[in-house]
Amino acid sequence: MxxxxxxxxxxxxxxxxxxxxxxxxAQAERGLVECPFCGSRSVVxxxxxxxxxxxxxxxxEPGQTRAKMQAMMMDVxxxxxxxxxxxxxxxxxxxxxxxxxxxxxxxEKREIYGEATPAEVKKxxxxxxxxxxxPSLPPDPSKAN
Length: 145
Hints:
Number of strands: 5
Number of helices: 4
Helix content: 25-40%
Strand content: 5-15%
Radius of gyration: 19 Å
Distance between the termini: 26 Å
Number of domains: 2
Largest sheet: 3 strands, antiparallel
Strand order of the largest sheet: 2-1-3
């Protein structure tokens, strides 16, 4: 995994993780990298210092550090999803219609979540309706074999 500091043409700065440098390049070429603040797809990498390992041993093997980071990311994804499920209105497969109605003022302003097809999500984004995928629940570590 590689973390990039990114910025959009509206000067919003953010970070994103990619499996490799070529993964970022491929996603950017296809217009899949976008600003989480404004949705702009005009995004560039910023200059950042590489994370270079020192010569001192930390006591943790690289695999252990990676496992800890993965567990932390899974915990955060679980917390985000739980927060949304507890605090947002579930609208099921009417998500695209309801998100558009809220955006255009035809429905009360509130936070919602639900299901939408990739085509519906693309249309919402193309029309400036803010939406983002909800992380799926990672496996419960206490139920792992």
